[in-house]
């Protein structure tokens, strides 16, 4: 009997962890709609979802790119900096946009995870999102 050829695996594997936080913000808008601009300028809140992804090859011993427990521990440190905060007051964030939230999360996670490959932030209620990728 002939043996089936070994199927090569891609070298890189991505593992992810999701989390969410509730936060308030005000926002300066550039749209024409005066009502939308006024609404965004008032303090209001959103539920934000985020996903952090680390890429690499699975270690031969552990079978893991990174133990997801490390990712969850880092998120546990980061999350209280955003959850139930007025984003306008969060040091180092800038205007509370999806872009700045993704950058803020990126900076916090990249310090610990050299293989950080993607950070995504989105709001289900509105259906918008921002994705930061390493390459
Ligand atoms: N490039 C970006 N553009 C916009 C962003 C952003 O983060 N990056 N964000 C917004 C607004 O925050 C978003 O449209 C929500 O608008 P908002 O006034 O905050 O609230 P809504 O009434 O539209 O949403 P509800 O959840 O229904 O209250 C705009 N552009
Ligand atoms: Zn908003």
TrEMBL record:
Free-text remark on how the cofactor is bound: Binds 1 zinc ion per subunit.
GO terms assigned for molecular function: 6-carboxytetrahydropterin synthase activity
Entry cofactors: Zn(2+)
Coiled-coil residue windows: none
UniProt KW keywords: Lyase, Metal-binding, Queuosine biosynthesis, Zinc
Keyword Lyase: yes
Reactions accelerated catalytically: 7,8-dihydroneopterin 3'-triphosphate + H2O = 6-carboxy-5,6,7,8-tetrahydropterin + triphosphate + acetaldehyde + 2 H(+)
Pfam families found in the cross-reference section: PTPS
InterPro entries in the cross-refs: 6-PTP_synth/QueD, 6-PTP_synth/QueD_sf
Pathway of action: Purine metabolism; 7-cyano-7-deazaguanine biosynthesis
EC annotation from Swiss-Prot or TrEMBL: 4.-.-.-
Family indicated by similarity: Belongs to the PTPS family. QueD subfamily.
Protein name in UniProt: 6-carboxy-5,6,7,8-tetrahydropterin synthase
Gene source species: Rhodoferax mekongensis
């Amino acid at each position: 009997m002939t043996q089936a050829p070994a199927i090569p695996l891609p070298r890189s594997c991505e593992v992810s962890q999701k989390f969410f936080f509730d936060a308030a913000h005000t926002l300066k808008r550039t749209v024409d709609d005066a009502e939308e601009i006024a609404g965004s300028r008032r303090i209001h809140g959103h539920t934000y979802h985020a996903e952090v992804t680390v890429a690499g090859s699975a270690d031969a011993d552990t079978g893991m790119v990174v133990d997801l427990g490390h990712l969850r521990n880092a998120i546990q440190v980061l999350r209280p900096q955003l959850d139930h905060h007025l984003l306008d007051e969060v040091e180092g964030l800038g205007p509370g946009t999806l872009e700045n939230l993704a950058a803020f999360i990126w900076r916090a996670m990249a310090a610990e995870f050299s293989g950080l490959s993607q950070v995504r932030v989105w709001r289900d209620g509105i259906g918008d999102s921002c994705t930061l990728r390493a390459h």
